[in-house]
Write a structure and sequence with these properties.
Layout (H helix, E strand, L loop, with lengths): L1 H19 L2 H21 L2 H34 L2 H35 L1 H35 L4 E3 L5 E3 L2 H5 L2 H32 L3 H23 L2 H12 L1 H7 L11 E2 L3 E3 L4 E3 L3 E2 L2 H7 L21 H30 L7 H9 L2 H18 L2 E3 L3 E2 L10 H32 L8
Antiparallel strand pairs: 1-2, 3-6, 4-5, 7-8
Helix pairs in contact: 1-3, 1-15, 2-3, 2-5, 2-7, 3-4, 3-8, 3-15, 4-5, 5-7, 7-8, 7-9, 7-13, 7-14, 8-12, 9-10, 12-13, 12-14
Length: 443
């Protein structure tokens, strides 16, 4: 059973991580497109309309690959996690269905209008279509986050006679406090991804000395949105996420910081290596009291360590959880620093001549993808050993009829397919960047 559980988790984690590379970019670009279309209407400048047109094409490519890579996740609920679907489907099936029926169709419909309908719609209706695309994209994200939030902090449910979870209070389920906080943090992370990609293309064109007018638009838009998104990801959204974890999953908070012993003035460790066997953190660089303040608003607050919880309630991959959290926080801090420097140079009118900053902006675009993936790793590993926190253990949610060999075989198939899809996607995006902002003209 242990091998079966490992491969089920590995396959879902692998496919979900690859899939989320694409939605985080589309959700970020949806806001970028709305901003650019708004500026085009307000100022009446073709450069903003042209910029929006370019990023709509990138959005379309990314959306298509995101749809293809997301389909296997839906099937895995029935193949790999049949008992979980049976026990919790009466609750989470609501938001998953809403995501497909409302948000997905809204998003795909208006994407078609954006890509092919600009001439027929005219500037104002085309801008409204961009707004509808944004709403559909972000609404889709909320339904998925609300589903995950129930697994993190279950509310609005009842236990039926057969032991399954059924929806009892739709309002409590949909506006779960955990969902609201997690959604805000997730979407700011998506904005950071979109902004960094936009700024990277602008920096690339500037360094090559081509498409300079469009490059200025991309740099300004990407840097300003990137700075706002990076700051918001740290505070207030990251701060609030830490507080709900401290309140509802204190054992997760202890594991995230490698905190073995309970006590006041809990420190945040900038670096360190967790030694689970000896229950200690090697080579730590602590900031005393900071964890107490982040979690409970006071430097002297008592923060429980892992010693306060039974061993069978500890997150099962503690080292990965610890490193994932510190990668996310460390990269987030660097994002703020880089975008603050770029914004300063932008305000001084020197960004286009600051080649070291432009190189940093161009090369930094993969790191928000890493930070967002690490953040979701923290959320999912931190919930272990539970599928639905406190109600259903992960070991109790698998499908016994699917043996490890089948899961390994299909995982290898997914890996090969995703390699081809990933290379094709990169080839198509590189072609759009090479064609420049005009691309194939207006639809």
């Amino acid at each position: 059973m242990g091998g079966l559980l490992f491969w089920h988790r590995f396959q879902f984690g692998f496919t979900a991580t690859f899939h989320y590379l694409f939605p985080q970019l589309t959700m970020g670009l949806a806001l970028v497109i709305v901003v650019l279309k708004g500026l085009a209407l307000w100022r009446g400048e073709e450069r903003h309309a042209g910029a929006a047109r370019f990023w709509i094409r990138i959005f379309g490519l990314t959306f298509g690959v995101g749809v293809v890579t997301g389909i296997p996740l839906e099937f895995q609920f029935g193949t790999n996690w049949a008992r979980f679907s049976r026990d919790a489907g009466g609750v989470i099936g609501q938001t998953l269905a809403m995501e497909g029926m409302f948000a997905f169709f809204l998003e795909s419909t208006f994407l078609g209008l954006l890509v092919w309908g600009e001439r027929r719609l005219g500037p104002r209706l085309h801008a409204l279509a961009a707004l509808a695309l944004f709403l559909g994209s972000w609404l889709s994200g909320y339904f998925i986050v609300a589903t995950n939030a129930f697994m993190q902090h279950p509310v609005g449910y009842r236990v039926a006679g057969d032991g399954s979870l059924q929806l009892a209070d739709f309002g409590a389920f949909v506006v779960n406090r955990w969902a609201l906080v997690q959604y805000a943090h997730t979407m700011t992370g998506a904005v950071v991804t979109g902004a960094f990609v936009v700024a990277a293309v602008g920096a690339f064109w500037t360094l090559k000395g081509i498409h300079l007018e469009q490059a200025r638009v991309y740099l300004r838009t990407g840097v300003l949105l990137g700075l706002l998104g990076s700051c918001a990801a740290a505070f207030p959204t990251g701060d609030q996420q830490g507080k709900v974890v401290a309140r509802h999953q204190p054992v997760t908070l202890a594991a995230m910081e490698g905190r073995w012993r309970s006590g006041p003035y809990a420190e945040v460790n900038l670096i360190g290596q967790p030694d689970v066997e000896r229950q200690r953190l090697d080579n730590p660089v602590p900031l005393p009291g900071i964890l107490s303040f982040i979690a409970y608003g006071s430097f002297s607050s008592d923060v429980r360590g892992l010693d306060a919880f039974p061993r069978d309630q500890w997150p099962t991959e503690l080292e990965l959880l610890y490193y994932g959290f510190h990668i996310m926080v460390g990269l987030g801090t660097l994002f703020i620093a880089l975008m603050a420097l770029a914004a300063l140079q932008l305000a001084r009118g020197r960004l286009e001549r600051s080649r070291p900053v432009l190189w940093c902006l161009m090369l930094a675009f993969p790191f928000p993808f890493i930070a967002n993936s690490a953040g979701w790793m923290v959320a999912e590993l931190g919930r272990q050993p539970w599928l639905v926190y406190g109600l259903l253990r992960t070991a109790g949610g698998t499908s016994n009829l699917v043996h490890p060999g089948q899961t390994v075989f299909t995982t290898l198939g997914f890996a090969g397919l995703y390699l081809v899809l990933g290379l094709l996607y990169l080839f198509l995006v590189a072609g759009e960047v090479a064609n420049g902002p005009q691309g194939h003209g207006r639809a």
